[in-house]
């Protein structure tokens, strides 16, 4: 782990223990995030993106459990620390923006009360100091009439305003790592652009590392430095954003890119990936993408490929990239 690496996830395994058996939601995921870096984890619903983020936050609820691997935050394995230590870390040095702010904010308390609570808990500030910091944060995320919004309840705000409140809350303690789980999914296009610009500026100003969970490749192209593509609980491709769009190596990544509309291309019908992500507990033998892959060979149905480096800083989990074989 280098000195500028803020987070290192090694062979993370998060399983759910159900009546029907053990379901591997995240199965051997490895990546790292450097200080000030923005990475994206992309993939369809059910690929393990959100469970990866919840594992890092220590928020995987029963019957789920981090069953193996390490999550090193500034060199310390946070899977082995106490719940009390994790509560000190969560919301302070590692913060998270959830997908739907209305379900993340308590409807009984004003937004100012909820932001102030986090500041008082982690920063040991007085009530007056916490209020002052909270109002400053609301202004910083572009909320007009911050003093009035401070005293408002969440249901009185628009979706974009609530998401800004969540960002203000997440950044109120100057976290070193910000995890954003689909932060713009429920917002209209103009508000999406404002939220992304806000996150980019705050990252630049505070040198905050960002881990962005998304399925929107347009957001990925605009926001991030590195991309992790997940499928059925595994990383299938990992590289920098420029290489991913210019030279995708995994058939799944190529399928995702081909199914995204492009402004300079006129098509009557968008290409789609046949089939769906295998449901929990129904992972196929061999490559997990084999039932949907147009390039699948006999080997893909019998042997599981490893994540292999095909060029500097470009890893792919696919049998097509064996030595001597031509890729897609």
Describe this entry's structure for a reader.
The protein contains eleven helices and twelve strands. With about 325 residues, the protein is of the alpha/beta class. It has a single domain (about 5-95, about 175-320), classed as P-loop containing nucleotide triphosphate hydrolases (Rossmann fold). The strands form two sheets. An eight-stranded mixed β-sheet has the order 6-7-8-3-9-10-12-11, sandwiched between helices. The mean pLDDT is about 90.
Features:
Rossmann fold; 4-stranded antiparallel β-sheet; 8-stranded mixed β-sheet; 11 helices
Top-tier CATH class: Alpha Beta
Topology as a string of helices (H) and strands (E) = EEEHEEHEHHHHHEHEHEEHHEE
| Percent range of helical residues | 25-40%
Could you tell me the CATH topology label.
Answer: Rossmann fold
CATH homologous superfamily caption: P-loop containing nucleotide triphosphate hydrolases
Number of helices: 11
> Are there runs of 5+ residues with pLDDT below 50, and where?
none
Radius of gyration over C-alpha positions, nearest whole angstrom? 21 Å
Whole-number tally of structural domains: 1
How far is the first residue's CA from the last residue's CA?
Answer: 33 Å
The CATH level-2 architecture is identified as: 3-Layer(aba) Sandwich
